[in-house]
Amino acid sequence: MEIKIVNKSQHPLPQYETAHAAGMDLRASITEEIILKPLQRLLIPTGLYIELPIGFEAQIRPRSGLAFKYGISIVNAPGTIDADYRGELKVLLVNLSDTDFTINDGDRVAQMVVAKHETVIWQPVDELTETARGEGGYGHTGKK
Length: 144
What we know:
Layout: E1 4-7, E2 24-27, E3 34-36, E4 41-45, E5 48-51, E6 56-61, H1 64-70, E7 72-74, E8 79-81, E9 90-95, E10 101-103, E11 108-116
Antiparallel strand pairs: 1-5, 2-11, 3-10, 4-9, 6-8, 6-11, 7-9
Pathway: Pyrimidine metabolism; dUMP biosynthesis; dUMP from dCTP (dUTP route): step 2/2
Keywords: Hydrolase, Magnesium, Metal-binding, Nucleotide metabolism
EC number: 3.6.1.23
């Protein structure tokens, strides 16, 4: 699929790093390094603006390597970019570690997955179809 994109950064467009990857890396587009303190959260600009087709969203997700090695994640993971949003893509990073984390211009800070979604039309009813699970919620199947 083709998606219109404006790139105001000095970095290449997001791309898939492997042939079957679902996500494309997003890079920080900043003029000076950012120090993300422990438990601090900041919006990191990317310099990218996209026009998604109706019926699609872009999900902004943490990069597994940053999460594992440095405790860097996304506060609202996954973040959702709607088809009618035209502002700059920004990544809401959080430092869940106990040490400072430095972000430099061009660093890969998140990944973006474009996905199709459905629009729900609610059908009010008085009761729902019974299932074997029923109302079993959190932890109802046990630990093992």
